[in-house]
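subagent[fold] <- orchestrator: predict structure for attached chain, return tokens only, no commentary.
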Amino acid sequence: MNNKVVLNATVIICLVLINLSCINNTSSELKKRVKEYYKFEQGNDWEKTYSFRTPLFQDSVPQKMYMEGMKKFMQGWTLQKHEIKKVSYGLQNDFAEIEINFSDRHTSKGISIITQMTTWERIDDVWYGRDVGNRDHLPLNSGLVFKRY
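subagent[fold] -> orchestrator:
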């Protein structure tokens, strides 16, 4: 009986440690991907940011429209920096909500600091941005997509 309890406890501890290891790996992959996305946004590389959006977004929003829209909406704006404040994962570690502080500069309005929740989805072990923070001037950064039936 005691051996069974010890064995069950050992199995549970191993499962917890394996799960924690997976979460840490998932967290570093996600944070790396988020940093890459905003680096491309800072450089106005809309082709790259488009590739970071979910497949459903890409199916719903034509790339040319996205690129032209982002150029238009970013006129006068520059993303100065972003800081990840908090990450929350879904049960399967395939969905994450990330609270991010954004600092944007506008040529005539000055600096705008805003905190927003962004959402990311892991598909085939790659993280994609669903809603990457519209910051009140980037409507195409919202999760505005429609499923085709």
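orchestrator: received. Logging for downstream: The first helix runs from residue 2 to 42. The domain at 2-141 is CATH 3.10.450.100 (Nuclear Transport Factor 2; Chain: A,).
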